[in-house]
Specification:
The structure is a single chain. The protein is of the alpha+beta class and 402 residues long. 64% of the residues lie in helices and 6% in strands. It is built from 17 helices and 6 strands. Strands 1, 2, 3, 4, 5 and 6 form a 6-stranded mixed β-sheet that branches. Helix 1 crosses helix 5 and helix 5 packs antiparallel against helix 7. The chain is rod-shaped.
Length: 402
Amino acid sequence: MHNPGNVAETAAVRSVLLELLGEVDELAERFVAALVQVVPYSDGAVERARLVADAVATYERVLRRLVQLPVPERLVELSRDVGRHRAGIDVPLAAVVTGTRLHFRVVWEELADRLPADALVTAVQLPVELWQAVEEHSADVQTGYHEAATALAYERDRDRRRIVEALLDSDGEDDELVGRAATVLGAARTDDVFVAVLPARTADSAADGAALVRRARAEGLHVHEWRGALVVLGSRRRGTWPLQGPGRPVVPAALREVACGVGPLAAGVARAPRAVRVAERVAACLGPGSAGPRRPAEAALDVAAHQLGAVREDVARDVLADLLLLAPPERARLLEAVDAYAATGSVAAAAGQLYCHRNTVLNRLRRTAECTGLDVTVPEQAAVLLLALRAWRQHEAADAAR
């Protein structure tokens, strides 16, 4: 077997190997005594009885392989089960592999003690075959470890998603849930939390959606699918960008070119659900041509109009009144002047923007007031008029999309 040209010495080696096969319990004890010196086994991560039982099966497999006896499938499966068990209790893979390779040393030391010196010298293939037998066991241990680690990672990721899902669906008043969510987010309960929501159409249409998620995670952001949208959460402890700018949250680089709704900076994890609901409402108002993030201050009129829901058209028709009865070209000219004035607050600036005389702007604003009873130059009336215009435009966009 080890040296086919010398039957006597082959027989001597085989005899010792068979002797060891009958002493696997003692080998296992010696192995465990050495193994517990390896971190983390030294802290009792695995019960001693389990370590001994695993080692007995390992020596039976290794020694049967060396004497060319059949290796039952149960022993191969036991090697894989060692890997699954160690992964399940979070023993690092490096420590597991170190442990499996200790088997070589234990067997080799026994062979060196029991074989005559000349037999040990001439059996040149013996250490190679012993190493191969131990490595076969080690490979199956690692296979089992990776199988279990993959399954555990999936389960843990699912548990983390459930915790975040529960937080987003909550009012933030469950202290235990807030604490668990803070752990998932890598934050303290009191940390400020950045919040953004990408509507479903944005997430679905992004050709590099997976790349976007990778970039966001690289910045320490947590990305979660929720109600068909993507929710992005970030905390100061994990983020690689400044959360707070002058009076408002700073948008991470991964989202600066992405159409999304940004919520107010949540003062603590418990307030994150409220901030997400704000961001969700902003995101719901993003049109097909939207580009880049929008904040509540930038989308307040759109959000207010959107919140009118089923009565949006009725409110708009009541406020805009005769304006909607005008021919489309005339109505467009009047609304163009209203939009320009609302954006600038100045008749002269609006005229410059529209490339017309300031009297033309004044006439159009006056005509709009005649049709609606609302003067856009009066702040309180302007708020009502602009809200109604947003509501009407949303209604038209919804009709066009149907």
